[in-house]
């Protein structure tokens, strides 16, 4: 069985390949990337694969039994790009697609959910066996703010008391590997999230505990949070998106307590304290 991974040089893709190599021969793994010359350190065969170049895709998928379609990073272009990949998989007669979607994509209020819903619909209409991994938030999405919190003396956001059931990126990579290696997951949709939900106040408290600093959480109106992010150097559109995601988190969009992720990977998800420790290191 040949397994191919799109976006293989991205953060998630690299983790998936590392974990796959520990379980199956590297010769059975194919990295699908825009620039194969940047994939030399992966230790597997690499093929050119640009979501926006339809003519390039089907030939790259020849002989692939299972495809991990890691969602594109280009928000606003994802639905079209993903359809290109799905159509190419149909042409190449790919055996199964495993897709990284979004937690509760069918009902999520996150603006990111729209393109995931469209992709899930395209997958359902493709006639191919599919496994949907609805990934929750990566803890790294928030621990990346630790340096700014330490510099400013406070963690800021707009998530209020919203509970965030995040998990480490490595946990989601393990889930992808589990789904890729067993046909038993065909036709299944998994809501993947961390075992223990936390609030941004909890994150601030954990930062304080580990650093010995008094770092509180300051909840801001979305417009003020976006303005602060823009002032810190983020593009205005991205800053507004991040603030909007926090507002959605305050309404429960990032919460799930089904523990399907830990069940799929066979152990507890990475606790917040360990992710903070890793970020501080």
Quick structural overview:
With 281 residues, the protein is α/β, with parallel strands linked by helices.
Encode the helix/strand succession as letters.
Answer: EHEEHEHEHEHHEHEHEHHHH
- Report the oligomer: single chain
Strands, count? 9
Class derived from helix and strand content: alpha/beta
Strand count, sense and barrel status of the largest sheet are:
7 strands, parallel
Shape: globular
Distance between the termini: 39 Å
Uncertain regions spanning at least 5 consecutive residues: none
Q: Which bin fits the share of residues in helices?
A: 40-55%
Order of neighbouring strands in the sheet with most strands: 3-2-1-4-5-6-8
CATH topology annotation of the largest domain: Rossmann fold
On the 0 to 100 scale, the average pLDDT is: 96
Tell me the radius of gyration: 19 Å
* Number of helical regions: 12
Query: Architecture of the largest domain, CATH level 2?
Result: 3-Layer(aba) Sandwich
Q: What is the CATH H-level superfamily of the largest domain?
A: NAD(P)-binding Rossmann-like Domain
Q: Assess the beta-strand content as a share of residues.
A: 5-15%
CATH class of the largest domain: Alpha Beta
For the record, the count of structural domains works out to 2
Q: Which tags fit this structure?
A:
281 residues; single chain; 9 strands; Rossmann fold; seven-stranded parallel beta sheet; alpha/beta
């Amino acid at each position: 069985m040949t397994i191919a991974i799109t976006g293989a040089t991205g953060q998630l893709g690299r983790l998936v390949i590392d974990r796959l190599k520990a379980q199956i021969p590297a010769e059975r793994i194919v990295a699908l990337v825009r620039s194969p010359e940047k994939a030399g350190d992966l230790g597997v065969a690499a093929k050119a694969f640009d979501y926006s170049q339809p003519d390039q895709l089907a030939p790259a998928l020849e002989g692939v039994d299972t495809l991990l379609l890691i969602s594109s990073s280009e928000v606003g272009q994802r639905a079209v790009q993903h359809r290109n990949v799905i159509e190419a998989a149909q042409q190449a007669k790919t055996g199964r697609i495993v897709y990284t979607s979004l937690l509760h994509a069918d009902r999520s209020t996150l603006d990111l959910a729209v393109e995931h819903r469209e992709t899930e619909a395209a997958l359902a209409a493709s006639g191919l066996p599919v496994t949907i991994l609805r990934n929750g938030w990566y803890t790294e999405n928030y621990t990346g703010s630790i340096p700014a919190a330490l510099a400013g003396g406070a963690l800021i956001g707009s998530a209020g008391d919203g509970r965030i059931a995040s998990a480490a990126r490595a946990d989601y990579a393990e889930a992808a590997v589990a789904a890729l290696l067993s046909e038993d997951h065909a036709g299944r949709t998994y809501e993947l999230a961390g075992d223990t939900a936390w609030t941004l106040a909890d994150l601030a408290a954990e930062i304080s505990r580990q650093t010995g600093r008094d770092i509180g959480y300051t909840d801001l109106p979305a417009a003020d949070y976006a303005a602060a992010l823009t002032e810190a150097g983020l593009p205005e559109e991205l800053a507004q998106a991040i603030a909007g995601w926090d507002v959605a988190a305050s309404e429960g969009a990032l919460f799930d307590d089904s523990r399907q992720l830990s069940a799929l990977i066979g152990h507890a998800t990475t606790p917040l304290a360990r992710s903070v420790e890793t970020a501080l290191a």
